[in-house]
Write a structure and sequence with these properties.
single chain; 227 residues; alpha/beta; eight-stranded mixed sheet; 4 helices; elongated
Length: 227
């Protein structure tokens, strides 16, 4: 009986299918020259079976815990893809070197520490033509560090990817969310935390950029003299 009562109080958990969305952040693709950048596994105080947030009912009570499996590995893979999409050549490492320097054959080493992985969905009592009103916010915050061959720090900063629902209304439009699934919302935040790294001025300054092709102006057409 005691076991039955305990099980009755347990709330069912929902698994989050976390994934990286390639080419999500505009301007983060094909911007670097193909320098070799070593990428060790992402670290962080994130368990293999991590509760990233909850779904809350209209009365504020927590209904469903949202759980992500293997989040650190998923983020590492997303970062590798994001660096490759940006034009770099990732060199995948099994661990972070003891001396903190890139291994032989690599030009740089980029470490990542996943500091925050969170998504919460909160319903309200309000009903609209698109269903029950809710707000949802996903946050992925990462600490990056980039070093050169000598182990000198070239870049160190946090990058945060955020996805909020619903978006700000335009004019008199009614509630219209772009995402309703917490898994998609958190995946968007993760993809922004990767893509926005490529846009950080100090990160870009530390890596070899591709040459920007000059804009060719049209050749003026000779005008006939007026009669």
């Amino acid at each position: 009986m005691a076991l039955a009562l305990a099980l009755t109080g347990c709330k069912p958990r929902a698994g989050i299918d976390l994934h990286y969305l390639p080419d999500f952040v505009a301007g983060s693709q094909s911007i670097f020259r193909p320098a070799k950048i070593a990428v060790p596994p992402t670290t962080g105080n994130i368990a293999d079976d991590f509760e990233a947030g909850k779904i809350y009912a209209a009365d504020g009570t927590a209904q469903t815990p949202l759980v992500v499996a293997d989040a650190l590995h998923i983020f590492t893979n997303g970062l590798i893809k994001g660096l490759a999409d940006a034009g770099l050549v990732p060199v995948v490492l099994d661990s972070n070197p003891d001396d903190g320097k890139p291994p032989e054959g690599s030009d740089f080493i980029l470490t990542s520490d996943l500091e925050q992985l969170e998504v919460n969905k909160r319903f309200s009592a309000e009903q609209t033509i698109h269903g029950q009103y809710f707000t949802m916010r996903a946050v992925v915050r990462v600490k990056y560090q980039l070093k050169n061959r000598e182990g000198a720090m070239l870049y160190s900063d946090e990058v945060t990817g955020i996805e909020s629902e619903p978006p700000n209304p335009v004019g008199a439009e009614v509630f219209l969310p772009l995402e309703t699934d917490p898994a998609e919302s958190l995946s968007v935040a993760l993809s922004r935390a990767v893509g926005l790294l490529m846009l950080q001025p100090n990160f870009r300054d530390a890596l070899p950029m591709r040459a920007v092709a000059p804009t060719l102006l049209p050749t003026p057409t000779p005008q006939s003299p007026h009669p």
